[in-house]
Design goal:
The protein is mainly alpha-helical and about 130 residues long. It is built from five helices and no strands. Helix content is about 85%, strand content about 0%. It starts with a helix and ends with a helix.
Length: about 130
């Protein structure tokens, strides 16, 4: 079932991008956001139907990772403006920002969700 869902989204993306690509990158971005929103809504209905997961349980489960990702994104974006004037190559800058983003996220998880780290370590030992 998941395969056909992804296939449907890929086909929908392809068709919508084909229809709007001549209107510019903004139109493609808007099409992507609209399809992603539709995909999210349909996915939530499927979760409720298949495993009886209501929206409050779902939002509670993703709230902490979502907030940690937002904080990481803001910090990396701010760091971009501090490091960018150093005139380093774009590929090096990208690699540096990705590595720092990973480090920030791991620190956040360690501080705000240590159970995740303990679970991963436990699974690695077995």
């Amino acid at each position: 079932m998941r395969f056909f869902g992804y296939l449907g989204i890929a086909i929908l993306n392809g068709i919508s991008f084909y229809l709007v690509v001549d209107k510019g990158v903004l139109a493609v971005g808007v099409a992507y956001v609209l399809i992603s929103t539709l995909n999210f809504i349909v996915g939530r209905f499927l979760l409720r139907y298949l495993i009886s997961l209501n929206i409050n349980e779902y939002l509670t489960a993703i709230a902490k990772p979502f907030l940690l990702s937002i904080v990481m994104g803001i910090l990396v974006y701010g760091l971009y403006f501090l490091v960018n004037p150093l005139s380093i190559s774009n590929i090096l800058l990208l690699g540096l920002l990705i590595a720092i983003g990973i480090l920030i996220y791991l620190i956040e998880v360690r501080l705000f969700a240590p159970v995740i780290i303990k679970t991963i370590i436990k699974k690695l030992k077995t």
